[in-house]
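Friendly challenge for the regulars: who can give me the structure tokens for this chain first? No prize, just bragging rights.
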Amino acid sequence: MSSARVAMDLTREAVAATLRQVAALAAGSTLVMTFLLPIDYLEPEDRPMLEWAQKGVATSGTPFATLFAPAEMLALARDAGFKEARHVAGTSHVQRYFAARADGLRPSSGEDFVIATT
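First reply, four minutes later:
Bragging rights claimed.
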């Protein structure tokens, strides 16, 4: 199961409830969920983009509800009942998928993954 670009729109309580519901699925089920990082966790060159995005969504009336530190997201997954949970930095894919790009495109350091298995 995957949940991409959703956690930032949910309250902390809603993220925890979602994790609990998924953790109750059949043994061996896996969830991959992305989450946005607090600004202090971003590379300095990526911080203006998060600030710009936060202003934009706030202006539209749908501000980001949550930003999670990796340890906090792992704790939520484990507290929800997942047997295994690991953090994968979004930037960990740079070498594999972006290194050969001539245009220099790379992912922001602002969105990471939690991979959790029941």
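The chain is about 35% helix and 20% strand. The helical segments are 12-23, 47-59, 70-80, 94-98. Your move, everyone else.
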